[in-house]
Amino acid sequence: MAFYYTPLSLILATWLLSTISLISLSEETKNGGVTLDLIHRDSPLLPFYDPSTTHFEHLRSLFRRSILRHSALSLAYFKSASKSPDLFEATLTSIGGAYLMKINIGTPPVEILAIADTGSDLTWTQCMPCTQCYKQKAPLFNPTNTTTYRSVSCTSQQCQSLGVESSSCDRSNGCLYQVRYGDRSYSNGNLAVETFTFDSSTSNESVVFPKVVFGCGHNNDGTFNEMGSGIVGLGGGAVSIVRQLETTIGGKFSYCLTTLDSKSSSKISFGPNAIVTGPNVSSTPIVQKSPDTFYYLTLEGVSVGNEALAYNYIPNSNSNSSIEEGNIIIDSGTTLTFLPSSLYEGLESTLEKSINGNRVSDPQGLFGLCYRLPNNGEFNAPPIIAHFTGADVELTQESTFVEVEKGVVCLTFVPSQDLAIFGNLHQMNFLIGYDLENQKVGFLPTDCSKPR
Predict the structure, then answer these.
(1) Does 10 reside within a domain?
(2) What DSSP line would sit under 185-232, residue for residue?
(3) Does 362 participate in catalysis according to the annotation?
(4) Which is deepest, 108, 255, 305, 342, by most CB within 10 Å?
(5) In the annotation, is 117 catalytic?
């Protein structure tokens, strides 16, 4: 990049004008209202995309990460239900993630590309100086180059909200954070406040949020992708971005995920831009459970065509046992949908009876129901509807059956004895709005490749 020298007076004048513009805009949009790009980690839209990797190699990697993430989130869930409430924070919030977003940190702002994750609370980025940092493509954030960076005291409410196992004090009484993930990845560093700037992807506007609590990581390693510099925590916990900005954005954010083969980026919105309305919107309550990072919904069952299967489905049984509220989480970072094993078995059996095709085994040994594509490439399956409390969400066939190898399509549900997860593959081409003020999630069928 070329650098051009300009008289100091002109630099100061330009900076003052831009600052006034940002302050005015921030005042105008103090109730939120900004939309940003969400870029899938395997998308050619990423600046460091590797074109040598094939589409099916990307898919295999995606599915493997999904299995690992499910195991990690399940571990977090069951440990949070144990006798030690701090064990969850100390062990794991999430692994990896599927989408990245650009944010700007500091004054002057420095662009950061980080994983947007509804399964994490703490937002953090790798910082100089590094005791140990994983390799990343972009330069490290340097807190000494910004005028708005401030350390957080270890006696502060923000520090204490991390839990006693995830925070400690340095010699200057500053708050130190420690986050350990289920795959033994970790991030350790200083808890601080900084100015965050969100540049709109749909206009030339920027929205400034001062004094956002985040982690400045000086010791980070593990399986993090070198394209990302950290994590943007979108979970429901106290230190997440959406909770910190709750009064500013009205407790509302939404995203619209494009299909895996789309040439367009997905979008995430905060504030008024995130309100999901219209006659075709269906909403379901968010259920409060521990850990509060996750967004729990109640799945009452699924249906295949005209045949309904209850969440607690038992083959050859007429049992009408009650369904537990908050029995599934909705997650932006898990690709596949994980169902209780008995419900999955009922779904697979019902689909097999309804599909006229040549059943084959999954070459990778992951999926249970796969078919050989006919020569004309057409594959027909009955519609699958996920029945949440108050919301019937009809899934698209392009998400329920995916071509995992050349000529082989497989059902993208997986049985689980652990945590049930509604994955992002089945959220694609829905505008999904999180309303934390009214504790609900809304679904609106949408072509996410088109501008709203």
Answers:
(1) no
(2) -EEEEEEEEEEEEEE-SSSS-EEEEEEEEEEEEEEEESS--TT--EEE
(3) no
(4) 255
(5) yes
